[in-house]
Amino acid sequence: MLFKKILFTLLSFLIFQNITLAQECFPPKPQGLVVDVVGALDKNQFLELNNKLVKFSNETSTQILVLIIDDLCGMDKSMYATEIGQKWGVGTDGKDNGIVLLVKPTGGQGQRQVFIAVGYGLEGVIPDAIAKRIVEKELIPYFKLNDINGGINAGVQVLMSLALGEFSAKDYQKKTESSNYIIFIIILIIIAFYIFSKIGAARKYSSINNVGLMTSLFLLMSSSSSHSGSFGGFKSGGGGSSFGGFGGGSFGGGGAGGSW
Question: Cα separation of 166 and 191, whole Å?
Answer without folding.
Answer: 36
